[in-house]
Every structure is written in C-alpha cells, then in structure tokens.
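Purpose: get a first structural picture of the assembly so the mutagenesis plan has something to point at.
Setup: two entries, given in the order below. No constraints added.
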Amino acid sequence: MAAGRGLRLSPRYIFYSMDERLKLIIIGAIVGIFGGLASVALNRSLRYVSEILNTIRHVRYAPLLPAIGAAFSSIFLRHVVRDLGAHSVPEVIYSVSRKGGLLRLRSSFSRLVSGFLTIASGGSAGPEAPVVISGASIGSNIGTIFNLRDRQREVIVGCGAAAAIASIFNAPFAGIAFSLEVILGEWTIINLAPIAIASVVGTEVSRILQGNQIPFHHRIFHSGALDLVACIGLAALTSLGSIILIRLLKMAESHFKKVTSIFWLRAALGGLIVGIIGLFLPQVLGEGYEVIRRVIGEQYSPGIVISGFATLGKIVATSLTIGSGGSGGLFAPCLVIGSLMGLFYQSTIASVFPSVMWAGESYFALLGMAGVLSSVLQAPLTGIFLVVEITGGYDFIVPVVLVSVISATISHYFEPFSVYHQELIRRGELLRPRTDARVLAELSVMELLEKDCLLVHPEMRLKEFVSIVQRSHRNYFPVVDSKTGSFLGMIHLDDVRPYLFNPGLYESVIVGEIMNTNIYTVSPDDELADIISVFDREHTWSLPVVQDGKFLGLISKATLMDHYRKELIVQEEK
Amino acid sequence: MKLNAREVARLIDMPEETIQRWIRKGSLPAVEINGKYMVREDDLRKWADKHNIVLNEEQRDTGSEPKRKDVSIYKAMHRGGVFYGIKGDNVKDVLEDMVRVVTLPENLDKKMLLELLLEREKLASTGIGEGIAIPHPRTTPKDLLPWPIISTCFLEKEVDFNAIDGKPVFVAFMMLSPSIKTHLDMLSRLSFCLRDKEFVNFLRCIPREEDLLEKVRLMETRLKPTSSTQS
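Result (structure tokens, whole complex):
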C-alpha cells in the first residue's frame, strides 16, 4: 500500500485506520447532509409547482393532469433512467436484505424526478419514499466510495433513509425509528450511532435551509380520561382503514396488470380516475400536507359525511395512484387518511355523545395519523415519534402510544407484514440479519463442499471396494464412470454392510451392482434452504453435488451444521 | 384434534424432551388440559408453516420392511432348471446358447436378456474361479420377474471366461433376481455352497438334475435362515 511509505499521516491513511464505529459515524454525517438536501429539493419544488397548479385546478381539463403526470413519470422511469419498478422503499429493503446495501447511483435522483411528476400533477402519493430511496442510494454510493464492507454499507443505507425521513418531517427520532424498524429491522448499538447522527444532521440541514418549523401546528388540548377511552375505538378504526388500504393496493396492482400491458397507459388510467375523484373531493389530490395542516389547525370541519367520504376517497385514490405504477410513497397518504379518519371519528362521537366535552378535532386527527402509519408500516415506534415530533409536543404521548400500539396489533392479526415487506416475504427475500434464512442465503454450496471422498468405479469388484472402505473415513462412496468421469450413483455403507463381511461375494459382486442409482443430486447453484428441505424429505445425511454430470463433492448435514453455527457467530456483533 | 408431546415429537421428528422444552419456553403454542400440555393440530400446522418446518405426515414404519420373498437357492434352481451340453467356444456363444435353451417367464425378452448379460460381462467377468461362472444382468427389470431364477448350465466343453483364477469354466449358473437385495442374498448362498471343495468336485462329475437339486437342498438346510444373513 502506498500509505505504508512515509505517508503515515495522510488523511486517507488516517481515515482507513480509524475505528470502524467512528468511521461509520463520520460517513453517516456526510450521508445525512446529502439526504437532507435531497428532501429539501423535492419539498421545495413540490411546493413551488403546487402553487402554480392551484391556479389552474378549476380549468375543465384539470382531471387529466394526474393522468399526464403519472404517464410521464412512468415513461421517465422506464425509458429515460431505466430504473425498473416504481416501488422505492421495498427496493431499499431488498438491497439491504440481499445485495449488501448496493443501490444504483441513478436511483438517487430518478425517483425524485418521477415522484415529483406524479405528486405535483395531483397523484395521491407521498414524497417520502422517493426521498428515502434517494438518500439510501446516496448512502450506498458514498459507502462504496469509502470502500465499506457489505454490512457497513447496509448501515449507511439505513443512514440515508433516516436522514430523508428526518429532514422531510423535521423529525430526527422518526427518522431513526423508521430506519431501524422498517429498513434494517434490528436495533444494535453499531447501527444506532451512525443512523442517529445521519438523522440529526439531515434534520439540521433542512432547518438551516427552511427554518426550524414544526410542520403542523395544533392548539393545546384539554383531554380527559374519556378521551383515552375513545382512543381505543379510534385505534380499531385506523387498523380497519389500514387493512382496507393494504388490500385495495394489492387489488389495484393485480387488476391494473390485467387491464393493459402498456405500462404508461396503466399509470395514466390510474391517474385519470384519481383526477376524476379529485373533481369531487379535491382533498385527495397530491401529497396532502395542506389538508393535514388545515385539519390539525382546525380550519376544516366538513362534518361526518364529507370527512367519511374524504377518508375513503383518499384510500381509493392512493391505491389507484400507487397500484397503477405511479411513483411515490405511502407515508404522506397514510398521514392524510389518518387525519381525515380522526376527524370523522371525532365528528361521529361528538354527535353520538353531544354532552361530553371531547378533546377536539386535531387531537383525534393526530392520533389517527399515528394509528394508520403504525398499522400500514407495522412500525409503531415510527408512528409514535413522527406524530409527536411533527406536532412539537410530548404533552399527549400517552394517547399516541395507546393508539399506535393497539392499531398495529389489531392489523397485525389480519395483515401480519408491513406493506413494504409483503412482496419481499412472498418472494422469500426478506432476510433479516442473524435469522435462519439469512444465514442459509449467505452460505453457498461450494463453501460446504467436501471433496475428500474416495471415488469408486462400477467395474470394481467387491474385494477392491472393501479395501477402499478400509482406507476411508466416510460412509458414502460416489460411483463415477472410470472413463468419462460422469456421476453414476452412490453407495452408502449402511446399505451394503451385510455383504462386506462375506468373502464369498468378494469376487462375484461388482460396485456397479450394489450402487444406488436413484439418488437425489444437488447442483452448486442450489439455494441451501432448498437443500435442507431435500435432506429432510429424503432422510439422508449426505447429498452428492453434481454439475454437468460431473461429481464435485458431497454436501453433508454435519458440515452444514458446523458452518451454520460459525456463520451465526461471525454475524453476531460484539 | 389435540396432540400430546409424543405425537408432536413424531410429527416434527424431534425428541419428546425437546418438544416439552419448547412448550415450556413458549416457542410452541400449547394448551394445558388436566395439568398436561396438549397442542392443537391446527395451531401446530400454522406454527410449522410459519417456521418452515416440514411435518412428517405419513406414519413411518419402524423398520419392519414388507416380508421379503423366500430366497432359497434350491427353489430358484428348481424353477430355473438344469441344462447340459451348452455349446460355444467363447463367452458370447456360450451365453447365446444358454439364453436359447433356458425356460424363462414368457414376458422376458431373450434378446434383451442376452444384451444385459454381455454388458455385465464387459464390465467384469462373472467367472468366480474353480471353473464356475455366475452370469447375471447388472440390473433386472423388476416387474418382469416375480421370483429369482437360477438356471444351471453345464457346458459341452470348458470355455475361457476370463475368470479371476484363469481357469476355464465348465458350469454356469445363470442368475436372475427381481431385486439387487435378493440377488446379493442368493449370491451369498450360492457362493457358500461353491466354497465347499466337495460340492465343486460333485459338480465336476456333472450330476443328474435330481441329484444336484437334492444336494443343494441339503446344503441349504445347513445355512442360517435368510433373515439373519440380512441384519
């Protein structure tokens, strides 16, 4: 290395010889700056464009806007930057779970642009997911520049995601919770430090550029014990809403695929329906921060009917926008749905129990937001912290915790996985650290291959075979053709033991007659999880590994167990 | 349906002690009935599905294989018959003539059998020494052969079989077995007889069919029953 010769004090050398944790914290801070910048950029441009567009909302062709935006957004993703799939958060999770946190550089801006097109034109989606993938991709690429190992890079990807959420909501705790709960799926000290740093740095960047504002102001509540009781009902309602949203989203996705195979037409169709809904319920359009602001500021009291319809409308519009291939996240829509739902709930109980002094619309709206977010993401801490931070008050943490936890628990019963994880779990690709699936996915057949077995040939007489058995310390003897070397079968000692001690058979029996040709073989590319199920099904301890007809070695349960344990040990963080 | 720890242990192929520990720790859902822990079958299935555990559905037999067919070489030789004066100067001709004269189950194709015999001979000679050969196919089509058959064929003149001791062969026992296990059992019984010098000399005199079979029957009574040669 160049650093070895007299360059001992070069910054590069100092950096590379630094303690791993310190290094991660420094990189986390850098990623935090970029994540913060990305979120400010998207937020600013969305606000700018929505001001312009608000002036033309009344024009007759306005419903076409979301359609055009969604079509352009999907064409941009597919053809301009060639980034497949509009889903952003699941892609980040997939990368952390299977690809060592690798993300393409272009993902750092592609979703920002496509998300901007979808949302600015009125599509019902949130800017958080684009910012998350952008921050994560920046983190991933910075990690690669600093030559980080896979596991370190995964943490830095988490930093990017945390910074994105933290800066967009001015909520550092929510960023930390989101990154650990949803993206990385584990809480360890090594994870926590850099992610926390990235989160506060990201928040600080947005505070410097946009001022330290609490996104949503509310008035002070005077809540009583009855309000707490009412919270339980709201929790049940929000989990119901979340289940409906998750199921509709899945339905929309599968139905749109059936309608047309032209992807941009699909997105445009979804956008068009959203635009038409927007004609009657303009609240459902866009990311909806303005709606939240007004609900929480109690400047918007539409009554039971309208708020109920608006809630449903927002659920449908969100499913259509995202299910049809529009670009954007579920974060903001969840908050809007939650706030409208809280409003609806408050109006309902206020009319049923008119004598009770309820805590107010904004109280229930905020709780609704926490409930829906916790349920849909299956991440109660994220929901709790986000709502507490964006309202700038810890004064009502008790009901927030109550609603978040109850709502997440109820919906867990019906939809056990977060909306982000479902697809990955279905494909078997959500591999959390130090789980069985993760360990098995990281080990490969070639690592476990045992090559020290003695090969035998079909024309060998039993006598020769017995002498080979004497020399061997194994119970399995693969039989290969002596000329072509191709794999023919195996002899397991247990199957032939009775004949080995019968010298009368030594000359008259050949290996080709006693070998078992009905043997399950595995290939070097097979997944270990599948191989384990073969072991279980065949009740065997060893399987031959064969590639292109050639015998490569044996893979045995005992070795697998040994490697499995060591793999678990090295994955432990100490 | 509720299962006790032993039934669960059988289903997931783990010791009962492990199952009880899992229930105690709460890793496996269980209900307490009269102080005993029971697992609902529904719960077990859901649990196994969630944890990717394969349930052992079919009640696996505890080692008792279906009773194997009687492997008496006397019966097999009786079925196969004894033939004299097989012609031929080399292995191929001898085998050809043998296949021609012996009586076989009618659905067994003689042409195919000859090919199988020659193929086996190509791998390694079946001449086991002392002028005796045991030609047989390496694999036998199972469903074509209900019982093992040994056809004893005395050759017209001694033929070089490329045997291990180099001695030319005067008698060939053509052996057909429905399975490799039967084959090995029959083979070990036959070679038990053939290791007896007196029996080989008896064969050299080319005995009559009745005498040969009677001799084999007597020798076989001295052998242990088949089942014990197995385990």
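The mean pLDDT of chain A is 83.
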